Amino acid sequence: MQLNTDLSQTVLVHAGQLDWAPSPSQGVDRRMLFRIGAEKARATSIVRYAPGSRFTRHLHPGGEEFLVLEGVFQDESGDFPAGTYVRNPPGSAHAPGSDAGCTIFVRLWQFRADDLTPIVVRPDRAENAPCRQGVISTQVLFTGTDERVVREEWGADTKIEIPNQHGLEMLVISGSALHGDTPLERWSWLRLPAGTPAYFQAGAGGAKVWYKSAPLLHANLCPMPLL
């Protein structure tokens, strides 16, 4: 499967308007945003776990990065409430699920081969950073080589600029905003090539966003198996 694979183009997906598609695990559905491959794929998705649903234990040879949007995500290492940011590095394994149900934003097989540090940032443990004009709060979730992952809250009707030297990927967690004249709503996913202007205006109720400033695909990605 090939979905939104042209990294030279701006891509916007209003994920909240997409139909849910079933995964191989009963009770786990997804809205696909980016994909190269079949079930084993470089992929960015929003994934919904029905109450009591689970995947069997499996490996992540290419790493897994996710943000819990709703509910409580669980695996054998613990419970991860909404707002938790997790990086499971290449070679990690788990059996994910949710007793009460949850929704996550997840990126698979998009780690550098040398990025091997597991990271869990719970909502009350994020590093606060100085705020730019119009920003109410900035929390740095991860920094690495050419990569910075941030969660921000934007004030109502404020104008915001995000530097975009390497490439930018953004998810609206709640609220709304404009990118130019284009509206962004809850769970809108935006991907901008490096150097594309990243100017926004928050909506009347403000906005909470997650974004990653990084190459859209790292040069030394974990290799995918030949299918």
What attributes characterize this protein structure?
single chain, mainly beta, Jelly Rolls, nine-stranded antiparallel β-sheet, globular
Topology:
Elements: E1 2-3, E2 11-14, E3 21-22, E4 28-37, E5 41-49, E6 53-54, E7 58-60, E8 64-75, E9 78-81, E10 85-88, E11 92-94, E12 97-98, E13 102-108, E14 119-121, E15 127-129, E16 135-144, E17 147-154, E18 159-161, E19 168-179, E20 182-184, E21 188-192, E22 199-213
Antiparallel strand pairs: 1-4, 2-21, 3-4, 4-5, 5-13, 6-12, 7-11, 8-9, 8-10, 8-13, 10-14, 15-16, 16-17, 17-22, 18-22, 19-20, 19-21, 19-22
Give structural notes.
This protein has 2 domains: 18-121, Jelly Rolls (Sandwich), CATH 2.60.120.10; 127-213, Sandwich (Jelly Rolls). It is mostly beta strands. The mean pLDDT is 96. Strand 16 (135-144) and strand 17 form a beta hairpin. It is built from no helices and 22 strands.
